Amino acid sequence: MNKDIILLRAVEVAAIATYKYIGKKDKNLVDQAAVEALEVMLRNERGFKLKVINGEGELDEAPMLYVGQMLGDVDNPDAPCFDVSVDPVEGTHPAANNFAGSIAVIAISKENTMLQLPEMYMEKLFVSDEFVDAIDFSKSIVEVANDMQIHARRKDLKCIILDKPRHQKTIEALSAMGIVVRLIQDGDVLAAIDVVNGEADFVYGIGGAPEGSLMASLSIASGCKMYAKLVSYKDIWPNEVETEQRVIKENAWLEKHNIDFDLVFEDTNLVNDQRTRFFATGITAGGTLKPINYRNGKFYVNAFIASHGIVRNIKTIYDIKKVNGLKPDIKYLFEKYKR
Fold first, then answer.
1. pLDDT tier at 109 (50, 70, 90 boundaries)?
2. 280, CA 20 to 30 Å: which among 42, 95, 119, 195?
3. How far apart are CA 294 and CA 317, in angstroms?
4. 121-270 maps to which CATH number?
């Protein structure tokens, strides 16, 4: 079977597995369901191998979908290998509380083309294809936004930004410039899908670095553009108990990769493959990607694929009885996670 269909089905089934726990106010249960679903769907596929570059964590922290884990046709030396970045539930908090902002997402690229990113913060800017050649991310975001307005010859650009205290001054400044600001609680990868689908001009914010790999894949695959810079934990949480230890780990990673906080990453620095592929399915979703639904023995899922400059928004129906009779691996998941 075509690997794109396999990966699409994997994120769709991951979203279906979470349905039992949507709104149950337990982030761990939501995440565990999606993690198991992805692992079950991908571990025995034939014809290709997958190596997790950015996943749930290291082996001792995450028994499945850990960094370095191999999935697929692992015993076949002739099977091509692909790098993988995966977030079984991007937005566990909105999924657990049943409000907009959660998706299941995976991206792949050729072997040895994805940068493994640390568990630290990253300042990210994702812009539509209109602004591919209009960005200098060494400038402040306010200066960048002004350049974008000049380039577009209009002030009312649409921006999506995480509604966090660290962004309040930026939100006020962008609004004062005439930019239409849409605030979200979680999910900058989901917000980037809205940019690709034409619902916004750019996404900006400081969030998790591993998600940067997913956004970079989406950017390359869709013809948009992304820029990023790493941000120290102490700049966000200067007075927390764990800050000192986090900073020690950050500095070790920076030294290992010869990177500093002033370095501007482009999407191709994070995923160096023009043929990268990006797959996502709505859980509670929001914006242009709709949430999962269930009626009368059928799951209605909404997925998104980007590759080679081609973008697809897909609606799929899973008839549980029919699928259970044909796909025992999916039947196992449907039985375990039925609501």
1. very high
2. 119
3. 9
4. 3.40.190.90
Specify whether the CB–CB gap between 99 and 187 falls below 8 A.
Answer: no
Q: Which of 254, 247, 304 lies closest to 105 in space, CA to CA?
A: 304
Length of the chain: 339
At 246, list the tokens: 């986090």
Q: Which residues contact 225 (CB under 8 A, 6 or more apart)?
A: 126, 127, 129, 131, 132, 135, 219, 266, 267
Q: Are 161 and 203 in contact (CB under 8 A)?
A: yes
User: Per mean pLDDT, which range of 79-83, 151-155, 332-336 is the poorest?
Assistant: 332-336
Whole-number Å distance between alpha carbons of 243 and 278: 33
Q: State which H helix or E strand residue 301 sits in.
A: strand 298-307
Give CATH 3.40.190.90 domain extents, the chain.
Answer: 121-270
Per residue in 32-61, pLDDT (tens digit) is: 999 999 999 999 899 999 999 998 876 666
Separation between Cα atoms, residue 68 and residue 57, nearest integer Å:
9
What number does CATH give the domain 3-114+274-337?
3.30.540.10
The structure tokens listed for 96 are: 């657990």
